[in-house]
Amino acid sequence: MIDRYEGSFFGRRKGKPLSPRREALMKNELPRLALDLSAAPPEDLRDLFGGNVDTVCLEVGFGGGEHLLHRARTEPHTGFIGVEPFVGSMAKVVTSLLEEQLANVRLYDDDAVNVLDWLPEASIDLAYQLYPDPWPKKRHWKRRFINSQNLDRYARVIKPGSEFRFASDIDTYIDWTLRHCRDHPAFDWTARTASDWKTPWVGWPGTRYEAKAVREGRVGRYLTFRRV
């Protein structure tokens, strides 16, 4: 297991071996799609996509890529930055982007903290973190990505008035996120009624982790915070 307390990525990066085709795509195509954090970021993130998008969204930990790919398909004029350290998930998304010729996605395959620290201030129009690893054992809660330091990072890059969205089926992580965002001066929970946090966002495609939660009798919660 990899522990990075300075960063925030914990866990394994590799599962089953990739097929030769996906190995080749990761070697030959991922560098073209990936963010180059060794270079300075553009002043306008839309330039990452050749100027063909109007807004830029960030998804930290896209897992199986269901949400990222759905939004890239249905919102061609939005640029998406997807972060995922797990090799199998990244290979799946790279394959889909090439097969479907989706040009509005850029990727990063390591710790999301590196991207958050690289992005320009107030450059993201919407940020998502959906069904992240909940680290359910209390002794592991310090490994959860949502903490005061990473909320500082989100606050720096999300435009004032824009949203940070978080989904989980683990009650302790929902409570944890609410508490940390409540205590952070840059975020305001937008819910006014129970339906606001019980109902997925418009256009929500679901994810494999959400489907697993439903099968196992858990219910997803959908939190929206405004960057004040």
From TrEMBL:
Q: Where are the transmembrane segments?
A: none
Gene3D superfamilies with a match to the protein in the record: Vaccinia Virus protein VP39
**Quick check: keyword Lipid biosynthesis in the entry?**
no
Query: Which principal EC class is assigned to this enzyme?
Result: transferase
The pathway where this protein functions is: tRNA modification; N(7)-methylguanine-tRNA biosynthesis
* EC number of this enzyme: 2.1.1.33
Q: Which UniProt keywords apply?
A: Methyltransferase, S-adenosyl-L-methionine, Transferase, tRNA processing
Protein residues bound to substrate: K137, D169, T207, R208, Y209, E210
Q: Which domain of life is it from?
A: Bacteria
Q: Which reaction does it catalyse?
A: guanosine(46) in tRNA + S-adenosyl-L-methionine = N(7)-methylguanosine(46) in tRNA + S-adenosyl-L-homocysteine
Q: What residues does S-adenosyl-L-methionine bind to?
A: E59, E84, D111, D133
- Family recorded in the similarity comment: Belongs to the class I-like SAM-binding methyltransferase superfamily. TrmB family.
Q: What does this protein do?
A: Catalyzes the formation of N(7)-methylguanine at position 46 (m7G46) in tRNA.
Q: Which HAMAP family match?
A: tRNA_methyltr_TrmB
By what name is this protein known? tRNA (guanine-N(7)-)-methyltransferase
Q: Which organism is it from?
A: Roseibium denhamense
